[in-house]
Amino acid sequence: MLTNNLGYPRIGNQRELKKACENYWAGKITLEQLTDVSKQIKRTNWQLQKETGIDLIPSNDFSLYDQALDLSLMVGAIPPRYESLKNGNPTDLYFAMVRGYQKDGKDVTAMEMTKWFDTNYHYIVPEFYKNQQFKFTSAKTVDEFKEAKEAGFITKPVLISPVSYLLLGKEKEDGFNRIELLENLLPVYIEIIEQLVAQGTEWIQFDEPFLSLDVAEDVKIAITKTYSTIRDAFPDLKLLVATYFDGLGNNTELAASLPICALHIDLVRGVDQLDEILKLAPKNLSLSLGIVDGRNIWKNNYQASLKIIDQAKQKLGKDRIIISPSCSLLHVPCDLENETNDTTLTPEIKQWLAFARQKLEEVTTLRDLAISKNITQANNKLKANIEANETREQSTLIHNSAVKQRTAAITETDATRNSVFSIRKKLQEAALNLPSFPTTTIGSFPQTAEVRSWRAKLKKGDLTKKQYDELLKKETEETIRFQEEAGLDVLVHGEFERNDMVEYFGEQLSGFSFTKNGWVQSYGSRCVKPPVIYGDVSRPEPMTLYWTQYAQSLTNKPVKGMLTGPVTILQWSFVRNDQPRYETCTQIALAIRDEVNDLERAGVKIIQIDEPAIREGLPLKKTDWAEYLNWAIRAFRISASGVSDSTQIHTHMCYSEFNDIIEDIAAMDADVITIECSRSQMELLEAFADFKYPNDIGPGVYDIHSPRVPSKQEMITLLEKAKAVIPSGQLWVNPDCGLKTRHWPETKTALKEMVDAAKALREIEVTV
Ligand code: GLN
Ligand code: ZN
Fold first, then answer.
1. CA distance 766 to 244
2. pTM for the complete prediction?
3. Residue 680 has pLDDT above 70, yes or no
């Protein structure tokens, strides 16, 4: 019974890679220094895995930025616009592909980035062209294998399979299906495997995540072809195909029939698939049991896992079983031992958790227990594991019966506004008296280095809470004054008090805990520190009332209250695994509802509940969508429906496809939705138009992710496009997301231009 790991966090225990990359980009360190940091991280990770007793240690799971981008370089899928950079330093070309390049008279845009399945990790989307040829270009996989070998580790190189790689990408021209490119791509993979085998590679892991999704017939054929081609070329190579994030579903038979040595399945997300796989597994197939949760931070339940392992052992025998985490450990923080602050993460909660390093120990302990190896030590660990899980079950920290009763008592009325939108709209018009094409922003204003430094000083004790609040007040007041001067209609307070749109709320809610070092890579050098929801959620005190009221006290214009919605809070946290996600989401929805109601009582007439993460919560298989959308939309409605008809509820979403869930977005019944549209030149609006979206819409008229200031004319053009498909009376004018990453000068100019664009439209309306 071997132990296996699919991938280890590569940012480094102290985010060394993040810092090194950013320093390299800023010209503060050399390429050699960056390479040294990378080498150090890789070696530390290999060493740690070896010491923990992992038999199949991955290599090529490291990446300077992203593994899909690494692959694009490996097979020479470098979009034509980077041609002029190919002669320079390969690392600079690599970073140019993700960060764009504006130097020496060159101006090249970056490649697109999107979410890695249902995680909060973003990968770089490969770009494909008709008849594209591939060429073995970067030897990173081979180099990393050699690097490990020289350091004394025989590793298992990890590669995204050619089919999954193609599926992750996008066709950049019409008239072909990217899966057809397999024929051109496969020979390059063969070349790489040849080199790996020549270096002494015994095992290779191919990630085939699309096997957990619904795939078309041509994809299934392509998958079979891939593995039979590789098998024919390398009969002695041990191929492990890794699936994760869901069960195999309709692809079970296909997966079991592949000519491979081992199949990895995710038994955390898809425990039901085990019976069927065990039935279908041919004699020569080993199963890698993904039993330790690679997506969450809870300690494994050894007793439950051992039952599952035993079931597989009965059928396959111990030699055909491999014990693994459910997926790459990229999605969890490095090491729980970095959490040394007992007030941030109390020992009681800490004993329930396991981060990447602890999860590897769980893998080896489970193997030991399953085959009675190192048995005294393993039994002690089993005992400790049972105790820790029992304290969690019984902890008074977790259970709050008032919260449970309240969620159980929710009725349909609680999740429905008093009147339909057409009636609400009239009442809101009377209450707010806004012009046509009302202007607003999405909430945050620039979080300057100064604002962030105040927060850091407050944490360190260099500023008192009072001093800190005074500084924020000044910043808020300046922001209100600017918005008045720019002529915006609906103002915001600017969100200067927030570190992050989830953490800020989590810190004020019961049932949430935080880490000091629980960083997880989100993309490239960007890391996030998701809160841990460990118990029933409630809201002891108002969370945003103070800042909203303060901002409103400064102006006669309406100030919009700003909240993060229940689904987004759930989605961007580590969620408890001892109750269904919908239950936790409903509890958060009630907490937000209390806040909405308090804001209304304090005289706030417009309240925005942001839900940027609603789309990414969609399950991988379409058959599971309806169930998710049902509770997710209901949670939003619970949070928004406690107010009177004349209170205007906004929501905001960004950077996702809405076409296939437009009906559900409409079912949220927000009075106004602001969405990202500017990058796609309003294409997105078509879905809203085709569906005849009934409520008000603010299609973003400028891209806040770029420092570029759009002209008034550009925004008028976009609004004209919007007007062509959406009745004018439904349109709002706003940027496409919050402005926190922008600087003040460009923000000021852009917003003034935006207000002018709205005014121009009003004039056209009047003359017509
Ligand atoms: N209100 C938030 C902001 O303006 C919304 C952020 C988001 O959409 N991710 O920053
Ligand atoms: Zn947004």
1. 57
2. 0.94
3. no
Q: Give tens-digit pLDDT for 263-309.
A: 999 999 999 999 999 999 999 999 999 999 999 999 999 999 999 99
> Using CB atoms within 10 A of its CB, is residue 533 exposed (0-12), middle (13-18) or buried (19+)?
buried
Given a cut of 90, whether residue 592 has pLDDT beyond it is yes
The closest alpha carbon to 618, from 654, 576, 580, 660, belongs to 660
Identify which of 355, 343, 373 has the alpha carbon closest to the alpha carbon of residue 295: 355
The residue nearest atom 4 of ligand 1, judged by CA position, is 738
Is the CB of 561 within 6 Å of ligand 1? no
Over the stretch 388-438, which tens digit does the pLDDT of each residue have? 999 999 999 999 999 999 999 999 999 999 999 999 999 999 999 999 999
Nearest CA to ligand 1 atom 6: 738
The predicted model gives 728-749 an average pLDDT of: 95
Geometric angle at alpha carbon 69, from 65 and 73, rounded to 5°: 120
pLDDT of residue 763: 94
pLDDT at 679 over 70: no
316-348 burial: b if 16+ Cβ within 10 Å, else e:
beeebbbbbbbbbbbbbbbbbebbeeeeebeee
Contacts of 450 (CB under 8 A, 6+ apart): none
Mean pLDDT throughout 237-250? Answer: 97
Residue 707: φ, ψ to 5°? -70, -5
Q: Is the CB of 518 under 6 A from ligand 1?
A: no
The neighbouring-strand residues paired with 561 are 607
DSSP classification of residue 622: G
Domain boundaries, the chain: 401-767
The whole-number average pLDDT for the span 349-355 is 98
Whether 562 is in the pocket of ligand 1, judged by its Cβ within 6 Å, is yes
Q: Which residues are catalytic?
A: 705
CATH topology of domain 401-767: TIM Barrel (3.20.20)
Q: Does the structure show a pLDDT above 80 at 707?
A: no
**Nearest-ligand number for the alpha carbon of 741:** 1
* Beta carbon of 443 within 6 Å of any ligand 1 atom: yes
pLDDT at 764: 86
Task: Report how far residue 499's alpha carbon sits from residue 489's, in angstroms, rounded to the nearest whole number.
Answer: 26
Nearest-CA residue for atom 10 of ligand 1: 738
Q: Is the pLDDT of residue 374 over 90?
A: yes
Distance CA 667, CA 25 (A): 45
Q: Evaluate whether 235 touches 197 at the Cβ level (below 8 Å).
A: no
* Residue 612 Cβ < 6 Å to ligand 1: yes
Structure token pair of residue 144: 């990393």
% residues pLDDT > 70 (the chain): 99
Residue of 499, 501, 747, 751 with the most ligand 1 atoms within 8 Å of its CB, for mutation: 501
Closest ligand (CA of 737):
2
Three-class secondary structure of residue 494 per DSSP: strand
Residue located nearest, by CA, to atom 1 of ligand 1: 443
How much is the average pLDDT of 14-22? 97
Please list, in sequence order, all residues whose beta carbon lies within 8 angstroms of the beta carbon of residue 289, skipping any fewer than 6 positions away.
265, 267, 308, 309, 312, 321, 322, 323, 324
Half-sphere exposure of 262 (CA within 13 A, CB side): 31
CA-nearest of 116, 326, 125 to 242 is 326
Helix (H, G, I), strand (E, B) or coil at 281: coil
* Of 322, 186, 167, nearest in space to 242 by CA: 322
Q: DSSP H helical segments within 372-525, as ranges? A: 375-394, 401-408, 421-432, 449-460, 465-486, 503-506
Residue range 37-52, pLDDT digits in tens: 999 999 999 999 999 9
Q: Does position 676 have pLDDT exceeding 90, yes or no? A: no
H or E segment to which residue 80 belongs: none
Q: What is the CA radius of gyration of the chain?
A: 27
CA nearest 717: which of 760, 653, 751, 747?
760
